[in-house]
């Protein structure tokens, strides 16, 4: 597809009539059918200090499930890393005919946050597009991040599709969509001064509407303990259909997460969709605190990933693992819900949703 030069934008103010929403683009829900899932192969030992070798079995099992229903596009540095990845994926039984490698070096593995954010268009002939938000590793916490920040542009050039550059910081894990005009996020993350201190809440909302093609922003408050992203919503509350969300709750009133999650639950109960209807809310338990080297980790069943054939859920060797899987199975009757052990993976402060970014398909 030839790229219309009108679509090669530099920084936008959020009021440009040629922004994605004005052109008919929108961000589909994750439960919309995928063309592929994009991943950045884990290689940064500092993200899993002393444990990086132990994460590859679970990561490869994740890829194997993905490959049963869609293409898996893996970005990595070079042929040596590709050979290493191929060996692990083969041991996990992944269908390598469904796995495609691209030599796009990254600083880290968190593709949800640095990867391409794909848009569809209400006019299918317009094709797909990418929003290339700025990325600063969650408020400049983990430099360098220059390679990660280049990924959306590289993917847009690879696929020969338009790329929109809003000129502000935004991570994929900070937002969740129902595909029908509603977006969930948190004030703790999107209004954090380490992201976009020059913009207020109303201005951030305007960017979300203009570049994601949504009608409303549903604001939760804070995130869970141990989340170094300052409160990503993909550890809290997720759309599982146009009207239904699952949201994590903590039963132990003495737990640090109890009050925060109760406040978010109350907000969800008060929210109304654009048609005036309330959300259908399903409560999801939390695992017992996962602590490693005196650090509480952001273990959450909400960090599942919705693939074409499976919903892959992080599990934590906890009594609530099966309960969470059962609840999610009832939310996704058309997909197989599977748990994959994330005991070591969560030492990196994220799990399967943090590691992946979907590319939607035209139906």
TrEMBL record:
<protein>
    <submittedName>
        <fullName>Agmatine deiminase</fullName>
    </submittedName>
</protein>
<keyword id="KW-0378">Hydrolase</keyword>
<dbReference type="GO" id="GO:0009446">
    <property type="term" value="P:putrescine biosynthetic process"/>
</dbReference>
<dbReference type="GO" id="GO:0004668">
    <property type="term" value="F:protein-arginine deiminase activity"/>
</dbReference>
<dbReference type="InterPro" id="IPR007466">
    <property type="entry name" value="Peptidyl-Arg-deiminase_porph"/>
</dbReference>
<dbReference type="GO" id="GO:0047632">
    <property type="term" value="F:agmatine deiminase activity"/>
</dbReference>
<dbReference type="Pfam" id="PF04371">
    <property type="entry name" value="PAD_porph"/>
</dbReference>
